[in-house]
Design a protein that fits this description.
- The protein is of the alpha+beta class and about 325 residues long.
- The chain folds into two domains: about 140 residues, Beta Barrel (Butyryl-CoA Dehydrogenase, subunit A, domain 2), CATH 2.40.110.10; about 140 residues, Butyryl-CoA Dehydrogenase, subunit A, domain 3 (Up-down Bundle), CATH 1.20.140.10.
- Helices cover about 45% and strands about 15% of the residues.
- The protein contains ten helices and eight strands.
- The chain has a four-stranded mixed β-sheet. A four-stranded antiparallel β-sheet has the order 2-3-7-6, with no helix packed on it.
- Strand 2 and strand 3 form a beta hairpin.
- The structure holds flavin-adenine dinucleotide.
Length: about 325
C-alpha cells in the first residue's frame, strides 16, 4: 500500500477515535470525493474537492426513496429541463446528515420514458437552495442522524451535472463501490469494541464475576479477534487497489458484508457480557459507560442495511463475481 493511502487510514483512524462530528463528516464524505475525482469536470473538482478533506463542507447522499431502496433504479425523483439546468422534484429518505450538509449527490430521472437504470442523471444539489426541506427522523439510538428530504422544484444548474445526462447509474456505481469497499473507520471502531469486550470479560460488569474463563466467551472473543484481523486485511486490499489506481469492482461487497455481519456478532457478545445492564442505553445509575455500549449495539443493527443490505451484497457477489444466474 502506498504511503499516501496508508496515511489516509491512520488519519481517519485518529479521527474515529476522537468520535464526534468530525468522524461523522468523514464517514459521510468517504464516497463523494472519489466519485467527483473519477467523473467530475475540472471546474467541479476545483470547486468541490478542496473543502471535503478538511471537512469544511459536509455532503449527503440523496439516493434512496420511499419506493426505491434495494431497487434503486425504481426511483421517481424527476429532473425536468429548465433554462440553464433542471428543476428537480421528489422525495428522498434515510439521507444521513442531510441536516448538516452543504451539498448532496443526487440521483434523479432525466428521462421519464426510459426504464430502470436508463435515464438517470447524477447531480450535485445545493442543500441550501430554495425548495429543499429536510425533516430529521429519530432512530432507536435516540439520535437523529438520517432524514427525509423533500425537493420541490429545486433548480440545479447545468454546471452541477456530473457526467452525461443519462449516465447517472454508472456514476452511482463508483459511489456505492467506495461506500462498501473503503471502511477504515469501521476497522478502528471495531478494534476499540474488541478492547471493550476484553475489558468487560476480564473485569466483570459492575461487581459481577469476570467471564474471561467462560469457555464459550473465550471462543467467541478469539473469533472476534480473527474477524477484526480479516477486516484489516480486507481494508488494506481495497486501499492497495486504490493506490494502484485500479477501480473498485463488485468485490467491494465482500468488505461491507464481512465487517457488518462481524459487527453484529461482536455486539451480540457485548450484550451477553453486559447482561441486564445492556438494556440501559441512556445515561443513568445502571448504565455501563453512560449507555455508550448499549447505544452502539442499537446503532449497529443498521449496519446490515445501510450501503445496501446483506442480501443485496450477496446477490452482487453471486451474479457479478461468481457468474451465477440473475435472481430475476
Ligand atoms: C442508518 C442508515 C443510513 C442510511 N443512509 C442513507 C443515505 O445517506 N443515503 C441514501 O440514499 N440511503 C441511505 N440509507 C438507505 C439504505 O441504503 C436502504 O435502507 C437500503 O438500501 C435498503 O433499502 P430499503 O430500506 O428500502 O429496504 P428494501 O429495499 O425495501 O428491502 C427490504 C428487505 O428486502 C430485502 N430485499 C430487497 N430486494 C431483495 C432482493 N432482490 N433479493 C433479496 N432480498 C431483497 C432486503 O435485503 C431487506 O431485507 C440508509 C439506511 C440506514 C439504515
Amino acid at each position: 500500500m502506498a504511503a499516501g493511502a496508508r496515511a489516509a487510514v491512520y488519519r481517519r483512524g485518529t479521527v474515529a477515535r476522537g468520535g464526534g462530528r468530525c468522524a461523522a463528516r468523514l464517514a459521510a464524505d468517504a464516497a463523494r470525493r472519489p466519485t467527483l475525482i473519477a467523473h467530475g469536470t475540472e471546474e467541479q473538482k476545483r470547486r468541490f474537492l478542496p473543502p471535503i478533506l478538511p471537512a469544511d463542507e459536509l455532503w449527503c447522499q440523496l439516493f434512496s426513496e420511499p419506493g426505491a431502496g434495494s431497487d434503486l433504479t425504481a426511483l421517481r425523483t424527476r429532473a425536468e429541463p429548465a433554462a440553464g439546468g433542471w428543476l428537480v422534484s421528489g422525495q428522498k429518505v434515510w439521507t444521513s446528515y442531510a441536516q448538516f450538509a452543504r451539498w448532496g449527490i443526487l440521483l434523479a430521472r432525466t428521462d421519464a420514458a426510459a426504464p430502470g437504470a436508463k435515464g438517470l442523471g447524477f447531480f450535485v444539489c445545493d442543500m441550501q437552495a430554495p425548495g429543499v426541506s429536510v425533516r430529521p427522523l429519530r432512530q432507536m439510538t435516540g439520535s437523529e442522524e438520517f432524514n427525509e428530504v423533500f425537493l420541490d422544484g429545486v433548480f440545479v444548474p447545468r454546471a452541477q451535472l456530473v457526467g452525461a445526462e443519462q449516465q447517472g447509474w454508472a456514476i452511482a456505481g463508483t459511489t456505492l463501490a467506495h461506500e462498501r469497499g473503503t471502511s477504515p473507520r469501521q476497522l478502528v471502531i471495531h478494534r476499540m469494541l474488541l478492547d471493550d469486550l476484553l475489558h468487560l470479560a476480564r473485569d466483570g460488569v459492575d461487581g459481577a464475576a469476570p467471564r474471561a474463563a467462560d469457555p464459550v466467551i473465550r471462543q467467541r472473543l478469539a473469533q472476534h479477534f480473527i474477524d477484526v484481523e480479516i477486516t484489516r486485511l480486507n481494508s488494506w486490499r481495497t486501499l492497495s487497489r486504490l493506490a494502484r489506481r485500479e477501480p473498485l469492482g463488485p468485490e467491494s461487497s465482500v468488505v461491507k458484508l464481512f465487517w457488518s455481519e462481524m459487527s453484529q456478532r461482536m455486539h451480540d457478545t457485548l450484550m451477553d457480557l453486559l447482561g441486564p445492564r445492556g438494556l440501559c442505553w441512556q445515561p443513568g445509575a445502571h448504565a455501563v459507560g453512560g449507555g455508550r455500549l448499549a447505544r452502539s449495539y442499537l446503532y449497529y443493527r443498521a449496519a446490515t442495511l445501510f450501503a445496501g443490505t446483506s442480501e443485496i451484497q450477496r446477490n452482487i457477489l453471486a451474479e457479478r463475481v461468481l457468474g451465477l444466474p440473475r435472481a430475476r
